[in-house]
Amino acid sequence: MLRLKDLNLNSGRRRAIFFTSLTLGLLFIVQSRSFEGLSIAHTRDSASNVFREIQVLRDTNKSLLVEISSLEETYEKTKDSSRSIQALEDEIRKFSMITGGKSIHGPGIRITVPKGADVTTLIDLFNELYNSGAEAVSLNGVRLTGNSFGLDTIPNGQILLRGNILESPYVFLAIGESGTMEASLRQTGGFLRRFEKDHPGRTLKIEKRERVDMEKV
Amino acid sequence: MRLSIIFVVLGVMIGVFFAAQFGTDVPLDGAFPADQYQARRVLIKDFIDEQEGLRDRIAKLNRQIDERQKRNQALLSQTKLSYLDELKRAAGLTTITGKGVVINLGDSPGASRESTGIIPEALVQASDLRDLVNILRTGNADAIAINNQRILSTTHISAVGNSILVNNSYIVPPFAIFVVGDVDYLSSRLRDAGVLSDLKKRASQYQLQFDLTLKSHVNIPPYNGNFRMKYVATEGS
């Protein structure tokens, strides 16, 4: 049993022990606060802060302004009889692409999710991709449009999409700015890190692609 | 000798703490919650007000384009106009009305999203809304809106701090989820004990509000945001 009186220290050593103990105490507090913060952050969403909040709002408002500009242009065309036919054609083409009526392509990423991932993981990955700017997403060749793509688990653990059993590995394709999407997935506290924590020994394969193709629905 | 052991033990402990600290993924929040709260309120309010104005403008422009195209019927192909109407309906640009369900989801009574020491389980999380939307989709919902934000295939429901964004629009609890679809099938999906188990467990444990009402008339507003079309292309475009 170590007793204080056994520590026949000179003043230098006592000071060293004092400061070491003080440092240890401070580290205890900092670390316990970190874990307290982590308990809040350890949800299924990426870590974020007030600056990210502002950035999201600012970027959204910019995108809305671009949409307004495009709609104003369409509206102006509809006022002019000679250009209204072209405006109608343009709108049909635009909404055919959005709703899956046309085959589409563009730069993007391919993500391979290994066997063992559950429905919530796939839902969160969809969300992460759209959140980071994906314009279109497909899973195992099925392009996701409308509200008809709910994911379900059947009793043997397999995942259903539009009534079809999905074979693993699950392959996501996303069209959009590949660098932004990849960086979002790989960020500290992002989807990849959370996946690796929840599925020890497994990881996602994330590949940038110059061209990703998706068939019409 | 004993002193050396003490220093070795203390050194190892400090090393362990440093390693744990640097390995912890924590949001870069400020150390002063009150300051951060104030700054957040001031900075964000202007952006939200601006966003509401922009969304209203988009909704108005979409209505104006529709009206103008209907006035131009003599010039335009009826077949193409009907096709465009169908496409816009599929894209979420029309109001959808019909039988359906309304789900009310709220935080635990007394829980505040702005206070410190929040118990995450006592709050409705963005992931709860995502899971709910997924179940509604498996229930063949025709249209879904959360707090008047129309849900599309590209909708993302995300958390930023303790706030929830749907289509990058702020929504605050209580959350009202309006759904048009087959009432019996939707309600049976929602009442299935095997789905939304985490949310149902927390609703019981932390008294989260989670009510389902069947309705003969539900109104789902059109989407009033932007469509991202910068990178996607078709052959020949």
Characteristic key phrases:
heterodimer; A: 217 residues; alpha+beta; Alpha-Beta Plaits; 5-stranded antiparallel β-sheet; 3-stranded antiparallel β-sheet; flat; B: 237 residues; 6 helices; elongated
Total domain count of chain A = 2
Structural class of chain A: alpha+beta
Tell me the overall shape of chain B: elongated
Class computed from helices, strands and strand pairing of chain B:
alpha+beta
Unreliable stretches of chain A (pLDDT < 50, length at least 5) are 35-42
CATH architecture of the largest domain in chain A: 2-Layer Sandwich
Beta-strand share of residues of chain A = 15-25%
What is the CATH top level name of the largest domain in chain A?
A: Alpha Beta
CATH superfamily of the largest domain in chain A: Protein of unknown function DUF881
Element-by-element helix/strand order of chain B? HHHEHEEEEEEHHE
**Biggest β-sheet strands, sense, barrel of chain B:** 5 strands, antiparallel
Offer a concise description of the structure:
The complex is a heterodimer of chains A (217) and B (237). Helices cover 51% and strands 18% of the residues of chain A.
Task: Report on this structure.
The complex is a heterodimer of chains A (217) and B (237). By secondary structure, chain A is of the alpha+beta class. Chain A has two domains: 1-74; 105-212, Protein of unknown function DUF881 (Alpha-Beta Plaits, 2-Layer Sandwich), CATH 3.30.70.1880. In chain A, 51% of the residues lie in helices and 18% in strands. Chain A is built from six helices and eight strands. Chain A has helices spanning 11-41, 50-79, 81-99, 119-131, 178-186, 191-198; strands spanning 104-113, 136-139, 142-143, 151-153, 159-161, 164-165, 170-175, 205-214. In chain A, strands 3-2-7-1-8 form a five-stranded antiparallel sheet, with helices on one face. A three-stranded antiparallel sheet of chain A has the order 4-5-6, covered by helices on one side. In chain A, β2 and β3 form a beta hairpin. The termini of chain A are far apart. Chain B has 237 residues and is of the alpha+beta class. Chain B has six helices and eight strands; from the N terminus they run αααβαββββββααβ. Chain B has helices at residues 2-22, 33-71, 78-90, 126-138, 183-191, 197-206, and strands spanning 96-106, 143-146, 149-150, 157-160, 163-166, 169-171, 175-180, 209-220. In chain B, the strands form two sheets. Chain B has a five-stranded antiparallel sheet with strand order 3-2-7-1-8, with helices on one face. A three-stranded antiparallel sheet of chain B has the order 4-5-6, with helices on one face. In chain B, a hairpin with a 2-residue loop joins β4 (157-160) and β5 (163-166). The longest helix of chain B is centred in the N-terminal third of the chain and has 39 residues, at 33-71. Chain B is elongated, with a radius of gyration of 24 Å. Chain B starts with a helix and ends in a 17-residue tail after the last strand. The mean pLDDT of chain B is 88. At the A-B interface, α1, α2, α3, β1 and α4 of A face α1, α2, α3, α4 and β4 of B.
